[in-house]
């Protein structure tokens, strides 16, 4: 007998929330245990419900989905999170994956693909919409090429430098990397030494030569 998968929906757009619920109700192996319409309610309800899988909107009226995932993963580490959103920007994708999401679907996916993604995520896979998967592949391809051109920097140092180039302050970089500000400062000091530069502007200019 197929194991029943308990699923919660966190989506503030009521029409789409109900659409996802109808998709789940078509499958006997899915059990929708909660329909939630705000981040605040998700933080209260989900830790007590503890579903196998959460379908999470990325941009709720009161919370970013990535922040919610990060907070909820601490309370319910056994639950699997799959983002369903209209946002396709690279930064949003990686922010969600760093927070603990295992999948990233774009709204507009067929009902069949949503169903497949739930099964895939539940069984340990990493389901992504085709456009998102392509962005991820392109990102790592660019990272690999850049790493070959700037061989002195470690992957972590290169990522920190790229965050600096985007104008992110040390505190935000530390938050995204889940480390202290002091650790980020040490990385930056190492970056300066390896690149032979004296400050942030010179380091960013060095990086841009390889873009």
TrEMBL record:
Q: Does the keyword Phosphoprotein apply?
A: yes
**Is this entry keyworded Flavoprotein?**
no
Source domain of life: Bacteria
HTH luxR-type domain mapped to chain residues: 146-211
Keywords associated with the record:
DNA-binding, Phosphoprotein
Return the Pfam families for the record: GerE (PF00196), Response_reg (PF00072)
List the Gene3D superfamilies hit by this protein, alphabetically: 3.40.50.2300
Annotated Response regulatory domain residues = 6-122
Mark the residues carrying the PTM 4-aspartylphosphate.
57
InterPro entries linked to this entry? CheY-like_superfamily, NreC/VraR/RcsB-like_REC, Sig_transdc_resp-reg_C-effctor, Sig_transdc_resp-reg_receiver, Tscrpt_reg_LuxR_C, WalR-like
SMART domains with a match to the protein in the record? HTH_LUXR, REC
Q: Which PANTHER family match?
A: TWO-COMPONENT RESPONSE REGULATOR
Q: What is this protein called?
A: Response regulator transcription factor
This protein's species is: Sphingobacterium tenebrionis
């Amino acid at each position: 007998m197929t194991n029943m998968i308990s699923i919660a929906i966190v989506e503030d757009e009521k029409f789409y929330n109900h659409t996802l619920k109808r998709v789940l109700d078509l499958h006997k192996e899915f059990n929708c245990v909660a329909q939630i319409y705000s981040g605040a309610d998700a933080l209260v309800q989900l830790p007590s419900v503890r579903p196998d899988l959460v379908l999470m909107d990325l941009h709720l009226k009161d919370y970013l989905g990535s922040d919610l995932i990060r907070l909820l993963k601490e309370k319910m580490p056994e639950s699997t999170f799959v983002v369903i959103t209209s946002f396709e920007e690279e930064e949003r994708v990686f922010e969600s994956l760093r927070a603990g999401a295992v999948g990233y679907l774009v709204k507009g996916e067929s009902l069949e693909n949503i169903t497949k993604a739930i099964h895939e995520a539940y069984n340990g896979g990493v389901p992504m919409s085709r456009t998102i998967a392509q962005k991820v592949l392109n990102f790592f391809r660019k990272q690999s090429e850049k790493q070959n051109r700037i061989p002195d920097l470690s992957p972590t140092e290169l990522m920190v430098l790229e965050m600096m180039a985007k104008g992110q302050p040390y505190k935000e970089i530390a938050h995204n990397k889940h480390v202290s500000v002091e650790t980020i400062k040490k990385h930056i000091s190492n970056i300066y030494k390896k690149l032979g530069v004296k400050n942030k502007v010179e380091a960013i200019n060095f990086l841009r030569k390889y873009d």
